[in-house]
Amino acid sequence: MPKADAPFAYDGLDRVIHEKARLGLLTSLIAHPKGLAFADLKQLCGLTDGNLSRHLQVLQEAGLVEIRKGYDGNRPQTTCGLTAAGRRRFLEYLAVLERVVRDAAEAAEQDHAGRPEPSPA
What is 15-113's CATH number, 3.30.428.10, 1.10.10.10, 1.10.238.10, 3.30.70.250? Predict the structure, then answer.
């Protein structure tokens, strides 16, 4: 709920989630509830191995994702998925982000409604 004295503070915007690459990772994972292989996440989000590993580490430390190591046949495979808490926090974050977009759109509408249209030249 926004504070009456600071309606545009958006306290629910979580810095861990808000970073561009992590936002993409969480969006990919929420769209794939069974999880994704490391290589698939790398491709979907356009990240290097190192960048992906680092962002996944941050998300794992925050309790948002789980990383499972296993094998696909004889080949090692890393799979990532959202935790229940991660899914909940991401959905809460999206609700705040929707409020940001709604507030900005309403402000733009009000600003536009208050301005006279430019006269044709």
Answer: 1.10.10.10
Instruction: Say how far apart CA 86 and CA 60 lie, in whole Å.
Output: 9
Domain ranges of the chain: 15-113
pLDDT in tens, 89-121: 999 999 999 999 999 999 998 876 666 556 665
pTM confidence score: 0.83
